[in-house]
Amino acid sequence: MEQQRYLEVINYLYSLQRFGIKLGLHNIKRLLKLLQNPEEKFTSIHIAGTNGKGSTSSFIASILSSSGYKVGLYTSPHLVDFTERIRINGAPISRERVVEYVEILRDEINLLRATFFEVTTAIAFKYFADEKVDFAVVEVGLGGRLDSTNVIKPAVSVITTVSFDHMDVLGEAIEQIAFEKAGIIKEGVPCVTGCEDEKALDVIKKVANEKRSELVVLDEVAKFELKGIDEKSVKFDLKTRSNFYSDLVAGVGGSFQVRNSSLSVLAYEKLCDLGLAKFKSDFVYDGLLNVVKFSGLRGRLEILKEKPKVVADVAHNYPAICQLVSELGNFKRKKTLVLFGVMKDKEYEKMIKKLSEVVDFAVATQPKIGRALNCKTIAEIFKRNNVEAIEIPDSDKAYDFILDEAGEDDLILVTGSHYLVGEVIAHIERRKIEILI
Question: What's domain 2-295's architecture?
Answer without folding.
Answer: 3-Layer(aba) Sandwich (3.40)
